[in-house]
């Protein structure tokens, strides 16, 4: 039976809670209501109020409490109702959690789940991709799955990880994609990218919902005789530069794609890493397709213009191919 | 002035105020009914829709007490504050529909709108973020020697956010001219009061900040109006902030997509009987402030105004995608 991205996250959480009694959930409207996106629907009934903690509207307290509980041996999984509100917990994440192990050796095994991303007409505060605020914070791990398989495998790895993991789940994928998942137990390692489509002419490196855009573009390009390889980063920190560079070494041309805005986006870091490691293999400039440097606008024609899409990727890929 | 003259004058004033309150509460209700029950369902509004049905008395009663120089910080359930400030109904609907004539020209959605010419500040989604900002506006008003105040609304759930406490404390320490207004509709999304705070009232938090706090019937527009008058008198006298907790009830789900199954149906029934518009109409006829046909005329005028506003919004174009990157900075 096909499993949606949302259901895959649910399953991952559920299985980990069944496996380890110290895993518990904490967040706003996650218990009786089952969460704003219904990811935790039914958890409260099954696991009870001790393990599914409905909180006041207090993101700093949610993450701070998760950190404190993790010091005492628990494995908290915190939910931000929308990734945009993670800013309210910024200090707890980037200063308390991220630096704890380095400063005094105290591990912070927490997971902060955050529904991110646009394309749902949510406007400037329900559509953001805040991953890069955290990717430049040593001590954190940042995960952004694109498929149901990876979402399930990575949420399980995140819960078992001994460091703080931010888990950005793209809300536009929740019910849009599905696939058959293995019946048995599996995990997906944090820190490993994946070549999700093989190709020879150029590489498209991306993550999150844009993986699907890249795959669509690759299909279209194949019709024109252009063979694009697609690399899904899956984890943004620690970054799997090896897999990216290996692909670039093979194709000699690279397009980096992300839904996040341009300046200071993941593409900049990857471009620097590629030119450091495999510069002599490059046959063309490194190309970026990203959102422009603006907030995410609400009105559909503005948001459509803001978001990268298949047509924009195909156009840039053609240019790169001909270069 | 003799007592016999004073009574009719007072009664005329009361009647005039009641008419005004009825007009703005009804306009807000009709606007939000169209938004939630028509335009949203027709797919003409694609973003989130949150309404203040049943809570109209609070933004109406309070905003009608403010001077134009007082700076308003309404929430997502305080549409009447915008209408009272003169934001055109058609532009509000265009805002919801993401059109070029919307207050933010399609950049932001629903009640996320402001106009500094009209002294109304736009909220961000993050709850209670306006509380310290309102304190800052009040600081400036005091600094500039103006007699004006900031008036800042928030839901009871928002008082759990750290920013709320920082803003409340700062305003009080600095004796800033702010009227804090809590729309206590007893739910924050699905979360009831009992899971939000361990005290029975938001007003109980006032003493911690040495801020006087009053609990008022948030479904009685004239009571809200009077209490706001008391608060303003205190605040304008330079004594510091003042907190009004308006008890009300959210007569809808959290948003248009939430059926609110978690709310016991008796509560809707009970609070439905306290509808602020029906209550004011009954009071107006009982006090002799209006005949039934005058009330009907107000409601008809409101419907006509909203018909015209819908037509305006529907005729408004979508913003030009070429403008996407405009306006991020002032020196572009
Ligand atoms: C910091 C933050 N966390 C979570 C949310 C999501 N959210 C939007 S409205 C809401 C409930 C607000 O409750 P309350 O303050 O009582 O206002 P009401 O909607 O009841 O008027 C929540 C949790 C948010 N907007 N901001
Ligand atoms: Mg509330």
Walk me through what this model shows:
- The complex is a heterodimer of chains A (323) and B (332).
- Chain A is 38% helix and 20% strand.
- Chain A has 323 residues and is α/β, with parallel strands linked by helices.
- Chain A is globular.
- Chain A starts with a strand and ends with a helix.
- With 332 residues, chain B is of the alpha/beta class.
- Chain B has one domain (3-317): Rossmann fold (3-Layer(aba) Sandwich).
- Chain B contains 11 helices and 7 strands.
- In chain B, strands 1-2-3-7-6 form a 5-stranded parallel sheet, with helices on both faces. Chain B has a two-stranded antiparallel sheet with strand order 4-5.
- In chain B, helix 1 crosses helix 11 (292-315) and helix 5 packs parallel to helix 6 (162-173).
- Chain B is globular.
- Residues 1-6 of chain B have low confidence and may be disordered.
- The structure holds thiamine diphosphate and magnesium ion.
